[in-house]
Amino acid sequence: MDMRIFQVKSNKALPHTGSILIASPLLYDYHFARSVVLMITHNSEGSMGIVMNKDFRYHISLNQLVPNLETAPLIPVYKGGPVDRSTIFFLHTLPDLEGSFPLGNGLFLNGDFERVQQYILAGNPIEGHIRLFAGYAGWNNTQLQKEINEDSWIIGETCKQHLLEENYRELWQTSMNELGNPYRLWAKYPQYPSCN
């Protein structure tokens, strides 16, 4: 048997706007263990992404943060990363939203928040169309590449349905499985091996 299949290695692909970083099952960092990060920018100045599959211990809703939306359906705000948690980012599928940043595959980031509030108050669908995040993940100009070289991250491609429709708790395993073998095997690696 080829024992290399049990060595968790990065695919060493280059991250780009709209790609995802999938944490190695051996990455135990508090903020990034089993995380999936949607890349917003990656260039010589640094990298920025939004963690797609973490929630706050005490759930936060947009309705609590924006008085105008008090009567709207409950809209969760997820933990986008450890940097600047006072800033809200929103991922969406609204191509005509002024000021939004295209990420590819029909996904956009931010834009005119007044229009988003109008969209919500008009009773338009939120599930599968908009997700909100507080904070982001950031790396300096060489830090992310160093972490990829150290096999902390595997690079995948964006799937709009997974990022906006899937239960965030299942996103890491789904993303690993979609890469095929040997990643599919690594997706079964226990989160806390000492508890097995």
What is the secondary structure topology, with strand pairs?
Layout: E1 20-23, E2 36-43, E3 46-51, E4 60-61, H1 62-65, E5 76-79, E6 83-92, E7 101-104, E8 107-109, H2 113-121, E9 130-139, H3 143-149, E10 153-156, H4 160-165, H5 171-178, H6 183-186
Parallel strand pairs: 5-9
Antiparallel strand pairs: 1-2, 1-10, 2-3, 3-9, 4-5, 6-8, 6-9, 7-8
Description:
The structure is a single chain. 19% of the residues lie in helices and 28% in strands. It has 196 residues and is an alpha+beta fold. It starts with 19 loop residues before the first strand and ends in a 10-residue tail after the last helix. The model has no long low-confidence stretch (mean pLDDT 89).
Short recap of the structure:
The chain contains 6 helices and 10 strands, in the order E-E-E-E-H-E-E-E-E-H-E-H-E-H-H-H. The chain is α+β, with helices and mostly antiparallel strands.
User: What oligomeric assembly is this protein in?
Assistant: single chain
Overall 3D shape: globular
Number of strands: 10
The number of helical runs is 6
Q: In angstroms, what is the radius of gyration?
A: 17 Å
Largest beta-sheet details: 10 strands, mixed
Structural class by helix and strand composition: alpha+beta
* Strand-residue proportion: 25-35%
Question: What is the H/E string?
Answer: EEEEHEEEEHEHEHHH
Q: What do the pLDDT scores average to?
A: 89
Helix content: 10-25%
End-to-end distance: 24 Å
- Sequence stretches where pLDDT stays below 50 over 5 or more residues: none
